[in-house]
Amino acid sequence: MIIKTTSTSDCKEHDVTDENVYHQRRELIKKMGFLGAGSLLSSSAGASILDIFRDDKIPSSLFSQNKLDYKAINGFDEELTPEAKITGHNNFYEFGVEKQQPAELSQSFNVNPWTLKISGEVENSLTLGYDELYSSFDLEERIYRLRCVEAWSMVVPWIGFSLADLVKKAKPTSRAKYLAFETLYDPVQMPGQRSRRLGGGIDYPYIEGLRIDEAMNPLALMSVGLYGKTLPPQNGAPIRLIVPWKYGFKSIKSIVGIKFVERQPATTWNLLAANEYGFYANVNPTVDHPRWSQASERRITTGGIFAQNRIPTLPFNGYGEQVADLYSGMNLRKYY
Amino acid sequence: MAIDVPRRWIPCFKVLVHLAALYPLINLYYAAFSDQLGGDPVEAVIHFTGIGALNLLLISLLISPLAKRFKLIFLMQFRRMIGLYAFVYALCHILNFLFFEVQFDLQLFIEEVFERPYITLGMSAFLLLTALAVTSISKLRRKMKSRWQILHNFIYLIALLVVIHFYWSVKSEIIEPLIYFAMYAALMMFRLKKLRGWMKGITSS
């Protein structure tokens, strides 16, 4: 199904920004290496004297992305974040905690074959192989704002299909109240799962969850691509969740399992620090993270340090019109 | 046996230290201004200058134990300079936060400093470090006499506050901050006697 409303929260197109930045990416990584090479203090922007212990080698070949067939959309308002920044600035601790590490350490990640298993309280258990991720549902482009819990944001042209379509196909039973998602656990391929230091000391596999009515909301997207191509590993190849009204950590990457369950499933960041990260994690400018304000955010677009504009954060990341009903009557301070 | 270097080499070494401290900073801002610093140059400059300040602070604390143990007296001539560069990096760290993170929203800046304990801690460390930087001028040092040393021993507290500030600021990746704790503890081990004397000095003055 296609989301084509004209609500105020929609992104509209003015300038679809420079992909040419993307092609300077190798150059960029090289320069970042050079930056530190002669320095007393560090070997990269993540700067520390501990960097000498790291093996963040620049891969000799980049992961190859395929062109996708999808229904493109026109008509957005906000400037897109350039592809180089979307693919070069990632929180994907399975490939390292520093923002540039996933791009550096994931390029040999093998996504084919892949198995996505849909199980639990459903009449129709499903297993999708690599090709079926792209062929089972109609792919469409959706331009969404992505708001990280760390108070930065991007605007990303995702490609994917409605999670609702997948749910309908699986035919949940009356006992299915929640969906429990799981990321691949493969320490051989994911260095962050081997090393506590590289992986930020969180327990793997990464797990996330949604209430079933959240999963049925038309905004919830299973993404298989961005900027016209299949996802690169650092953005969650081959398939990831996108729930744009929630903080980015809800949008779990490289999914191998979706289980329909009766009780609210555990989620990774909530297990790690329940007072900082709730199950719902709806974008909410009035509920601060204990250690920083959530009232505003820095939008990452084209340009250097002066181009990173601070803008007010909107309730539900600006998607209140489509999702606020899901939470009517709930105390969002308690269920953060 | 004291190892000393010829006097005339000292200025050359000083130039090298200046270059080693300034080069990464110039490179950093050049990359940040020209959009060559990854997806989020703001986070990158804040982290680089923060860690840089802590590294320099620890190096400055390493100088006197090294000079004493290996009788490398000439090293003492670099201590003030490295301490002042720690201050410069710390100043950049805070200005980065003010200019690029909160973008001159002074109200937000003040709120964050007072409401977020890890930022309050970091700012306290910076204010103390500022007092040390200002009183590092030789003239003031002579004027302050023995009180100068008492004040400048606050560097031990500052370094501790900075390490806690780092530990407190991360989301989950605590191993690196813990290594800094260990390095700090090791540097303090050389100074147990002095620390006791300092505590007495504070309480009696």
TrEMBL record, chain B:
Residue intervals passing through the bilayer: 12-32, 44-66, 78-98, 118-138, 150-168, 174-192
Cell compartment(s), UniProt: Cell membrane; Membrane
Listed InterPro entries: Fe3_Rdtase_TM_dom, MsrQ-like
Record's GO cellular component terms: plasma membrane
Cofactors: FMN; heme b
GO-annotated molecular function: electron transfer activity; FMN binding; heme binding; metal ion binding; oxidoreductase activity, acting on diphenols and related substances as donors
Keywords noted in UniProt: Cell membrane, Electron transport, Flavoprotein, FMN, Heme, Iron, Membrane, Metal-binding, Transmembrane, Transmembrane helix, Transport
Record text on cofactor binding: Binds 1 FMN per subunit.
Membrane topology: Multi-pass membrane protein
GO biological process terms, semicolon-separated: protein repair
UniProt domain Ferric oxidoreductase: residue ranges: 49-162
Primary location recorded for the protein, binned into one broad class: membrane
UniProt signal peptide: none
PANTHER family: PROTEIN-METHIONINE-SULFOXIDE REDUCTASE HEME-BINDING SUBUNIT MSRQ (PTHR36964:SF1)
Similarity field: Belongs to the MsrQ family.
Subunit details: Heterodimer of a catalytic subunit (MsrP) and a heme-binding subunit (MsrQ).
Function: Part of the MsrPQ system that repairs oxidized periplasmic proteins containing methionine sulfoxide residues (Met-O), using respiratory chain electrons. Thus protects these proteins from oxidative-stress damage caused by reactive species of oxygen and chlorine generated by the host defense mechanisms. MsrPQ is essential for the maintenance of envelope integrity under bleach stress, rescuing a wide series of structurally unrelated periplasmic proteins from methionine oxidation.
Protein name, as recorded: Protein-methionine-sulfoxide reductase heme-binding subunit MsrQ
Organism: SAR92 bacterium BACL26 MAG-121220-bin70
